[in-house]
Design a protein that fits this description.
- It is an enzyme of class 4 (lyase).
- The protein is an alpha/beta fold and 797 residues long.
- It has 26 helices and 21 strands.
- It starts with 17 loop residues before the first helix and ends in a 6-residue tail after the last helix.
C-alpha cells in the first residue's frame, strides 16, 4: 500500500435514489435492532417467541443514547466507501456506543471473519447479544476487541487528535471522526480542532469530523447543543472548518440529508487535495465537517413510567431498566425491537437480507477490516543507521562532556532522512525540539505548518515531519493515532509536563496490553518518550518545572508493556534509543539530560551495560578478595555523576574501604523476575547488591519508588535511597542536589553512617564532608556559581 501522494479525483454528487434510501434505512434499522439486542438479550435473538424474563440479561449494561447516531454514520460511510471508492477509517469518539459499532461490524461480516464462532446467522447473533457486557464477553465500549477500532471508548476527549494522527502520511485515506457533544466539552478535544493547521493536503490524508449533537451527557445538557446556531457556526468556521448541517427526527429525510452531506464532503476533500497536489495551491484548506443533530436515544422508547425518555438525558444508558421484573417494561422492549421490523431485515436463519447489505463494502474496504485500524499489518522496520556513526569517543571515563540529547538528535536526523520517501517516522513535542537539543532534525525535515509564515520564521514547511504545538494532549494523540495506523515516532517533552498526558498514556498502555492477547492484532511500533530538561537541571525555570514523577506513574502499569530507562551518558542513550525505536507494543520512557554531562562508557561498553550489566568494576575499589563494604548504586545522569564523585572521595579519604559501584539503566531490573520480564532473579540481585551490605542508592526521582521496587528483596533493610524530595527552586546545578541531599558529600556521609564501625574511624572525614556543604552554601550566595572543586571536577579513578 503506497504512501505516495497522487491526484485526488473529483466527481459530483448524484444523490441517492429511492431504492438506495430504502436500503440505507434497512441497514440502519438492522444496526439499531442489533444494538438493542446486545444491551438486553441473552436468548431469542430473532424474537421468534414472545419475549420472556429468561431471555433478558440479569445485568443490563450499555449505552443506547448515542448508538442510533453512530449507526447512521456507519451506514452512510458504507455508502460513500462503496459508491465513491473512498479509503475509509472511522474513529468513534462516543465510545460508549460500543454496541453500535459491534452491530455494524457483524452486519458487514468483518466480526465473523475476526471471530469465526460469532457467525452471521441466528446462532451468531445470539452469541453477539449474549457476549456484550457479559462475564467472559466483550466490553461495552469500543475497544481493542472491536474490529476496525483504534480508539478506546473510555478516552473521552482524544478522538479528533487520534483521527489526525491516523491521517498523517496516509494521503489516500479519509478518516471520519464522530465527536460526541459531551466529549466536545473536554480540553483536549477543544484543542484538537486546531489540528487542521498541521495537516498537509499533499502528503497527508483528510479528516472528516462529524460533530454529533444529541443534546445531553449522562444527566445534563451539552454546551454545543444549546448554543445558538449562528454562534456554533461562527465557532466552527473560526476553527477553520466549512460545516455542513444535517438534522431531524424523520429517518428518510435525515438519510437523504446525510447522503447529500457525505457526498459534498467527499467532493470538497478531493477538490482541496487536487488543488494542492496538482494545482500547486499552498493556501491552508478549510476542510468540510458535518454537524449532525438527532435526538438522543432516537427511535427508542418515547416515554417510560410516565416520564419522557427519547430526546432526553434519560436515554443515555438503558432506557428500560426494569425489564426482567416489570411486565410493562418487557412489553415496551418487545414493541421497541419489533418496530425495526426484523422480519424484513433478516431471513429465517438470521442472515442479513440483500437489501440490508446493498451498500456494505467488500473485503478490506469494510470499516471493520481496514488494515489502517490494524497498523501492524502496514508496519515496516525503521532504517536505523549504525550507532557507530553517531557515538562519541570515550578514551577515559568522566573526563569529556557531551550533551546526550544533541548526540541523539544526530541519530534521529539520520532516521528522518532515511524515511524521507516512505514518510513513516515523526517526532512530536510541545515547542521544545530545539530546546531539547534535537534541532539536527531540521537538516532532514522541517516543522509541519500550514498557516502563513513570516521572514523571521525558521524551519517551517507544509510537508514537515516534526510537529510542535503547545499542547501535550495533541502531541500524544497525534502520535498514538500515527502508531496505531502502522508508523513510528518519538515524543520529546520536558520531564515535568509529561504528567499532562498521564490519563492518555494510561489508556494506550491498556490498549496495548489487551491487543497483545488478540492474535489478530498485529504488533505496532512502541510509543517512545524522551523526557529531558529534567528535574535536576531547571536552572532558570525552577520549582514549577521540577517533577520526576512520570516514571512512578508508568511503573504502576502493566509490566508486560512498560519500560523505563535512565541512561547515564550519550552512548548509553544511543543504545537505549536504538532498542526503543526497534521495539514493538511497548511504552518506552527514556529520561536523559540535555546539558553537557560526562561520558562514562564507550559505545561497546554501553551496549553491554544495557544488555546485561549493572556493576561498574572500574569505578569501585573491590579487589574480589572479599564482599564489598558498601554498594553505591545510581540511576540517572546527575545521580551517576554524584555517585562517581562520592566514589572518588572515598577512594581518596578511605582507601581501605571496598566500594562497589552499580549503575541501573533499566528500572524494571530492580523488580523480581516474577513481577516483570526484565526483573532480576533473587540470586542475581543478591549477587549485585548483596544480602547484608549497606546500599546507598542515588536515584533520579522520588526515592520511595526504589523502595517500592525492591521491597521484597532480602537486603531491603540495608537499602537507603537518596532522590528528589520536593526541594526545588531556581538555583545552581549542584545546589539542587544539595537541597535534596543527593550530593556527593552527603553520599559519603551516608556511607560513613551506615557501614558498621566506620563512623568512629572516619569522624574527621565526615566532618570534612559536612564542612564542604557549608562552604557550598556560602559560595553560591556570594558568587552565584558552584564551588570550583565541583564545577571543575573530573573522574580521577
Amino acid at each position: 500500500m503506497s504512501n505516495a501522494p497522487g491526484p485526488a479525483a473529483v466527481s459530483g454528487p448524484t444523490g441517492p435514489s429511492d431504492e438506495e434510501v430504502a436500503a440505507l434505512d434497512a441497514h440502519w434499522r438492522a444496526a439499531n435492532y442489533l444494538t438493542v439486542g446486545q444491551i438486553y438479550l441473552m436468548a431469542n435473538p430473532l424474537l421468534t417467541r414472545p419475549l420472556a424474563r429468561e431471555h433478558i440479561k440479569p445485568r443490563l449494561l450499555g449505552h443506547w443514547g448515542t448508538s442510533p447516531g453512530l449507526n447512521l454514520v456507519h451506514t452512510h460511510l458504507n455508502r460513500v466507501i462503496s459508491s465513491r471508492g473512498v479509503q475509509g477509517l472511522c474513529v468513534w469518539g462516543p465510545g460508549h456506543g460500543g454496541p453500535a459499532v459491534l452491530a455494524n461490524s457483524w452486519l458487514e461480516g468483518s466480526y465473523s471473519q475476526t471471530y469465526p464462532d460469532v457467525t452471521r446467522d441466528a446462532e451468531g447473533m445470539g452469541l453477539l447479544f449474549r457476549q456484550f457486557s457479559f462475564p467472559g464477553g466483550v466490553p461495552s465500549h469500543v475497544a481493542p476487541e472491536t474490529p476496525g477500532s483504534i480508539h478506546e471508548g473510555g478516552e473521552l476527549g482524544y478522538a479528533l487528535t487520534h483521527a489526525y494522527g491516523a491521517a498523517l502520511d496516509h494521503p489516500g485515506l479519509i478518516v471520519t471522526c464522530v465527536i460526541g457533544d459531551g466529549e466536545a466539552e473536554t480540553g483536549p478535544l477543544a484543542a484538537s480542532w486546531h489540528s487542521n493547521k498541521f495537516l498537509d493536503p499533499v502528503h497527508d490524508g483528510a479528516v472528516l469530523p462529524v460533530l454529533h449533537l444529541n443534546g445531553y451527557k449522562i444527566a445534563n445538557p451539552t454546551v454545543l447543543a444549546r448554543l445558538p446556531e449562528t454562534e456554533l457556526d461562527a465557532l466552527l468556521r473560526g476553527y477553520g472548518h466549512d460545516p455542513l448541517y444535517v438534522g431531524g427526527d424523520e429517518p428518510i429525510g435525515v438519510h437523504r440529508a446525510m447522503a447529500a452531506a457525505m457526498d459534498l464532503a467527499v467532493d470538497r476533500i478531493r477538490e482541496l487535495q487536487a488543488a494542492a497536489r496538482t494545482g500547486g495551491d499552498t493556501r491552508r484548506p478549510h476542510w468540510p465537517m458535518i454537524v449532525l443533530r438527532t435526538p438522543k436515544g432516537w427511535t427508542g422508547p418515547v416515554e417510560v413510567d410516565g416520564v419522557p425518555v427519547e430526546g432526553t438525558w434519560r436515554a443515555h444508558q438503558v432506557p428500560l431498566p426494569g425489564v426482567r421484573d416489570d411486565q410493562e417494561h418487557l412489553r415496551q422492549l418487545e414493541e421497541w425491537m419489533r418496530s425495526y421490523r426484523p422480519e424484513e431485515l433478516f431471513d429465517a436463519s438470521g442472515r442479513p437480507s440483500p437489501q440490508v447489505l446493498a451498500c456494505v463494502p467488500e473485503g478490506d474496504a469494510r470499516l471493520g477490516s481496514t488494515p489502517y485500524a490494524n497498523g501492524g499489518l502496514l508496519l515496516r522496520d525503521l532504517p536505523i543507521p549504525p550507532l557507530d556513526d553517531h557515538a562519541v569517543q570515550v578514551d577515559r571515563p568522566g573526563t569529556v562532556l557531551h550533551e546526550p540529547t544533541r548526540v541523539l538528535g544526530g541519530l534521529l536526523e539520520a532516521v528522518m532522512a532515511a524515511t524521507a520517501e516512505r514518510r513513516d517516522f515523526r517526532v512530536v513535542g510541545p515547542d521544545e525540539t530545539a530546546s531539547n537539543r534535537l534541532d539536527a532534525l531540521y537538516d532532514a525535515t522541517a516543522k509541519a505548518w500550514q498557516e502563513r509564515t513570516l521572514p523571521t520564521d525558521e524551519h517551517l514547511a507544509r510537508d514537515g515531519r516534526v510537529m510542535e504545538v503547545l499542547s501535550e494532549h495533541l502531541c500524544q494523540g497525534w502520535l498514538e493515532g500515527y502508531l496505531l495506523t502502522g508508523r513510528h515516532g518519538l515524543f520529546s517533552c520536558y520531564e515535568a509536563f509529561a504528567h499532562i498526558v498521564d490519563s492518555m498514556v494510561n489508556q494506550h498502555i491498556k490498549w496495548l496490553r489487551t491487543s497483545r492477547r488478540l492474535a489478530w492484532r498485529r504488533p505496532i511500533a512502541s510509543l517512545n518518550y524522551l523526557l529531558t530538561s529534567h528535574v535536576w537541571r531547571q536552572d532558570h525555570n525552577g520549582f514549577s518545572h521540577q517533577d520526576p514523577g512520570f516514571v512512578d506513574h508508568i511503573l504502576n502499569k502493566s509490566p508486560e508493556v512498560v519500560r523505563v530507562y535512565l541512561p547515564p551518558d550519550a552512548n548509553t542513550l544511543l543504545s537505549v534509543a536504538d532498542h526503543a525505536l526497534r521495539s514493538r507494543d511497548y511504552v518506552n520512557v527514556i529520561v536523559a539530560g540535555k546539558q553537557p554531562s560526562f561520558d562514562w562508557l564507550t559505545l561497546d561498553q554501553a551496549r553491554a551495560h544495557c544488555a546485561r550489566g549493572a556493576v561498574w568494576e572500574w569505578a569501585g575499589t573491590e579487589d574480589g578478595s572479599r564482599a564489598p563494604d558498601v554498594v553505591l548504586a545510581c540511576a540517572g545522569d546527575v545521580p551517576t555523576l554524584e555517585t562517581l564523585a562520592a566514589a572518588d572521595l572515598l577512594r581518596t579519604h578511605l582507601p581501605e574501604l571496598a566500594v562497589r559501584v552499580v549503575n541501573v539503566v533499566d528500572m524494571a531490573r530492580l523488580l523480581p523476575r516474577e513481577e516483570h520480564p526484565h526483573g532480576m532473579p533473587d540470586s542475581e540481585y543478591d549477587a549485585v547488591f548483596t544480602r547484608d551490605t549497606p546500599v546507598i542508592f542515588a536515584y533520579h526521582g522520588y526515592p520511595w519508588l526504589i523502595h517500592r521496587l525492591a521491597y521484597r528483596r532480602a537486603g531491603h533493610g540495608q537499602l537507603h535511597v537518596r532522590g528528589y524530595k520536593e526541594e526545588g527552586t531556581t538555583t545552581t546545578p549542584f545546589d539542587m542536589v544539595v537541597r535534596n541531599d543527593l550530593d556527593r558529600y552527603r553520599l559519603v556521609m551516608d556511607v560513613i553512617d551506615r557501614v558498621p564501625g566506620l563512623g568512629v574511624r572516619a569522624v574527621a572525614v565526615r566532618q570534612a564532608m559536612a564542612d564542604a556543604r557549608t562552604r557550598h552554601h556560602a559560595w553560591i550566595r556570594e558568587h552565584g556559581t558552584d564551588l570550583p572543586e565541583v564545577a571543575d571536577w573530573t573522574w580521577s579513578g
